[in-house]
Specification:
By secondary structure, the chain is α/β, with parallel strands linked by helices. Helix content is 38%, strand content 13%. Strand 2, helix 4 and strand 3 form a beta-alpha-beta unit. The structure holds pyridoxal-5'-phosphate.
Length: 375
């Protein structure tokens, strides 16, 4: 089966992990800060905080911005459940805004009109679907007018750009959160990375990542000379990444640009080879990280095509089941029909395989087979 996505692990990666395994620290050692430093430099952000997953990063980001019971957090229904769950973890109210049918990202005109008619989120979490950034300048203008914070869910977006700057530079947001799961652009096994330019948010995140504990005398209520002493200042979590994971992530980061090039090339080949089929293809983009190549079967039965592609050994997938239609979110008051664009999109969507290492022959096979099924 050709999967829809997969990691690539090189000898350099193995070597980096092995070196860490043989060193004094397999967690809470130097590999973490090395990875953080390089990640921040790549994105052009002041700070970078490694965490155990993107989900953990989204949760901590919501906490750091003070999201709590009285508040509303808003995101797109076309995402993995983790984005909405991060809001729910803080006991805040979860809100969705429907997607734009061309970009599949949160519809900012719709958000604008909801804000105009009184919606008051404390935090908005745009999701850069498939690697295509949302219009962050537009969202940022809304955030200044209506006073909300922005956390970018950039799980699909490591290495992508927006207006010539790397996603994660936080030019138009408070925080950006990346996923380092093996199916994403680069991996640390499991892992996430948060970037920000705010020292205040950075300090909060560092504290919250490790139980709310500090060992820094300057930050203590009762500073002391006793070497073992630490203080818990808040209710934090254990959301750390290990040094083993950081060593892998750091090694992968060196190949990020090459991965982006390979992904772009595969996307361009799909664009060419599928151009005459009766499907909706993704918008072309030089700045996308091309995490997913999503086509819409506007004139065919998607489920039938999905099953027949799978039967032929092609691991197509579907991203995403609209989050508000999940039983848990139905319990929270949402219903089918609430966000028709996301639901229509979902009924037609099919994710084609795309990852570095997918060969031209495999891609030709995928395209030929799809063509046969649609003719
Ligand atoms: C993968 C993903 C996440 C969660 O990432 P983890 O690192 O597995 O926690 C969150 N949001 C989106 C959009 C994702 O695709």
């Amino acid at each position: 089966m050709i999967p829809y996505g997969r990691q690539e692990i090189t000898q350099e990666d193995e070597q980096a992990v092995l070196e860490t395994l043989r060193s004094d620290f397999i967690t809470q050692g130097p590999a973490i800060s090395e990875f953080e430093k390089n990640f921040a430099a790549y994105c052009g952000s002041k700070y970078s905080i490694a965490v155990s997953s993107c989900t953990a990063g989204l949760h901590l980001s919501c906490l750091a911005l003070g999201l709590s019971e009285e508040d509303l957090g808003v995101t797109s229904p076309n995402t993995f459940v983790a984005t909405a769950n991060a809001i729910a973890y803080c006991r805040a109210k979860v809100g969705f805004i429907d997607i734009n049918p061309q970009t599949y990202n949160i519809d900012l005109d719709e958000l604008g009109s909801r804000l105009k008619s009184g919606m008051r989120p404390k935090v908005v979490l745009p999701v850069h679907f498939a690697g295509h950034s949302c219009d962050m300048e537009h969202l940022n203008a809304l955030s200044r007018q209506y006073k909300f914070s922005i956390i970018e869910d950039a799980a699909h977006c490591t290495g992508a750009s927006y207006q010539g700057k790397k996603v994660g530079s936080c030019s138009y947001s408070d925080l950006t959160v990346f996923s380092l799961h093996p199916v994403k652009i680069i991996t640390s096994g499991e892992g996430g990375m948060i970037t920000t330019n705010s020292e205040e948010l950075y300090e909060k995140l560092i504290l919250l990542r490790t139980h709310g504990i500090t060992r820094d005398n300057k930050k203590m209520q009762n500073p002391t000379e006793e070497g073992w002493y630490f203080e818990q200042k808040e209710l934090g979590y254990h959301y750390r990444m290990t040094d083993i994971q950081a060593a892998l992530g750091n090694s992968q980061l060196k190949r990020l640009d090459s991965y982006l090039e390979q992904r772009r090339r595969i996307a361009c080949r799909y664009e060419e080879k599928l151009s005459d089929l009766p499907i909706q293809r993704p918008l072309p983009s030089d700045e996308s990280s091309w995490h997913l190549y999503e086509i819409l079967l506007t004139q065919h039965d998607r489920t039938k095509v999905y099953n027949l592609m799978r039967k032929a050994g092609i691991g197509v997938n579907v991203h995403y089941i609209p989050v508000h239609t999940q039983p848990y979110y139905k319990k929270r008051g949402f219903n089918k029909g609430d966000f028709p664009n996301a639901e229509r999109y979902y009924s037609q969507a099919l994710t084609l395989p795309l990852y570095p290492g997918l060969t031209d022959e495999q891609q030709d096979y995928i395209c030929d087979h799809l063509r046969k099924l649609l003719s």
